[in-house]
Amino acid sequence: MTSAMEYHHATSHVRERLAGRELDWAHRPEVFKRYPPGAVEQLLPLPACAVAAAQSLPLLLQGRHARTGRPSLQQLSNILGLASGITRTRIQGGGAYHFRTWASAGGLFPCELYLALGGAWEHADPEGRLVPGLWHHQPETHSLTLLRHGDALGVAAMAAGLPEASSRPSRLAGVACITAIVHRSAWKYGERAYRYLLLDAGHLAENLLLALWLEGYGAMWAADFKDDAMNALLGLDGEREICLLAIPFFSGEMPDAFAAMPAPAGPLAEFADRNAVQDASRCARVERPWPVLLGLHRAGNIESRFVGRSEAASPPAVETLFGADVREPLPLQDAAAVHAERLWPSISRTILSRRSQRRFVSEPVPAATFQAFCHLLCDRSLQDRGARNLCLALGLRNIDGFSDGLYALDREGRTLTLLHPDAPHEALALACLGQTWMVRAAVQVCMVADVAACEGRWGPRSYRALGLAAGRLGQRVYLAATSLGWGACGVGAFFDDEAGAVLGLRGAARLLYAVPAGPVAEAT
User: Fold this and answer.
1) DSSP letters of 430-454?
2) CA 414 to chain centre
3) Which residues are paired to 393 by β-bridges?
4) DSSP 520
5) Do strands 487-488 and 330-331 pair parallel, antiparallel, or not at all (unpaired)?
């Protein structure tokens, strides 16, 4: 499988061919990665997450403050706790189920988070344990595991393709790497799981970026890294566990230019036991290969085929995606005025209280509330190549000041354009495998992309960019809804052609993700 369009077609649900998958419950995957003691150098417990900042999501997106002073272990704990922490635990079926800060398809949590840290963190830990090197975050115990010491930061910067990476950027504080353990999701979703892995990684990435910004770090989205080099750095075999995204972060705002640093203190140490490190990616006693999923992933290895293809992208024209007569755009009200009408919770409270909620109620939504929701999806940070090639189609019902229907949200111009005068709620719920709870949501957020056009321009790796961006926007929908007292719940399962017909998609435009949102009956 070497084509994004071929993969998308091969993993599309068709009503006549969809059969229930028999899940091997006796070998359900573990959701936490654990290294054997002899394979790691040390374990560093982190203090409890204690975010003091009261900044709200709108304020954080409008302007970020630069970090002052030295980094601390508490600061690192706050970042990791918000990005990937456990929010509550439920005992069920004789075991414990841990809810996390980021949304995950099926509650399978396939993603892992690694940090390549440099010398700036040496004094963050009073006991001197936070040495430069490669660390893995363990959410179950909220701790860091040192996998190898030395110049992991320089290696990660080079693999991520940062400008002047060989001399290392002067203010680069770390590189976060988000991976996915394939079988955790494929156990349930089969070869279609690559879609979910990308969405889940995007969910986690959005939390991580917000947490970094909240603590005063600049951060950038680096999806065009060299796969083989990154796998070698992290100790991955590229089959059981794959790297999907790198996020370099900087002291203060992200610099416009990069300057040389002093020479690294020493080389990057080899793993104590590379085989044991790779085997830690095993999540079940019985696993099977997933050749279609991994085939597309390998086809996007830019180290051999797509290095340097990072030219800017223009948002797709609505006319090319939807078979509809485009009407005059409706401008949203001024964002500052709309946001000023509300008392917003802190971003930390928003992230920690986010949950998937389906108990929607059909009640009128004030126009100002809906427009505040839209503005939170239009932030200037959502400008990476994948996000710019996504179109957000909003199915609206019971929104004051807006007729029911399907609209396109122009995130740069902050306008809404009516595409179809009928709300797609019932038909879309039917196409989404009959999930009738979707009908009562006020807003159906649908993420659409021309998969073939993106692949023609950037090759098979474009599918990663689109899926990651859809996941990031999906997590933003969750957080925007939570900030407003709404609920939201992502939907990645649908009859692909039927969903496309409901939305009026034309050509190679495809639905990638849907996230219904709106008022809910109660917190559940």
Assistant:
1) HHTTT-GGGGG-SEEEEEEEEHHHH
2) 23
3) 408, 446
4) B
5) unpaired
Classify residue 311 as left (phi > 0), alpha (psi -120 to 50) or beta. beta
Grouping H, G, I as helix, E, B as strand and the rest as coil, residue 219 is: strand
Residue 35: left (phi > 0), alpha (psi -120 to 50), or beta? beta
How many Cβ atoms from other residues are within 10 Å of residue 20's Cβ? Answer: 5
E strand or H helix at 417, and its extent? strand 415-420
Q: Report helix, strand or coil for 41.
A: coil
pLDDT in tens, 201-233: 999 999 999 999 999 898 888 888 999 999 999
Question: How many Å apart are CA 315 and CA 294, to the nearest integer?
Answer: 29
To the nearest 10 degrees (0 to 180), the angle between helices 227-234 and 152-159 is: 160
| Cβ atoms of residues 146 and 170 within 8 Å | no
Non-local CB neighbours of 252 within 8 Å, separated by 6+ positions: 66, 67, 171, 216, 217, 218
- Token pair belonging to 233: 């750095």
Tokens of 357: 């909620």
pLDDT category of residue 307 using cuts at 50, 70 and 90: very low
Token readout for 504 is: 């009026």
Rounded to 5°, the CA angle 231-213-357 comes to 85
SS3 of 127, please? coil
Query: Alpha-carbon distance 433 to 179, whole Å?
Result: 29
Q: Is the pLDDT of residue 500 over 90?
A: yes
Confirm if 472 and 202 have CB atoms less than 8 A apart: yes
Contact 49, 155 (CB under 8 A): no
The token duo for 148 is 């190898």
Grouping H, G, I as helix, E, B as strand and the rest as coil, residue 94 is coil
Nearest alpha-carbon partner for 313 in 228, 390, 246, 392: 390
Q: What is the end-to-end Cα distance of the chain in Å, rounded?
A: 41
Q: Which residues pair with 405 in a beta bridge?
A: 396
Buried b (16+ CB within 10 A) or exposed e, 163-188: eebebbbebbbbbbbbbbbbbbbbbb
Q: What is the Cα–Cα distance from 294 to 197, expressed in whole angstroms?
A: 12
pLDDT tens, position by position, 428-443: 999 999 999 999 999 9
CA gap 160, 157 in Å, rounded: 5
User: What amino acid occupies position 27?
Assistant: H
Which of 274, 272, 262, 209 minimizes the C-alpha distance to 236? 274
- For tokens 């070998």, the residue is 27
Greater pLDDT, 341 or 143: 143
Burial class (CB in 10 A: 0-12, 13-18, 19+), 8: buried
Per-position b or e across 190-217, b if 16+ CB within 10 A of its CB: ebbbbbbbbbbbbbbbbbbbbbbbbbbb
Burial of 48 from C-beta contacts in 10 A (0-12 / 13-18 / 19+): exposed
Counting every residue written for the chain, the total comes to: 524
DSSP 3-state assignment of 136?
strand
Q: Does 155 have pLDDT greater than 50?
A: yes
Would you call 110 helix, strand, or coil by DSSP? coil
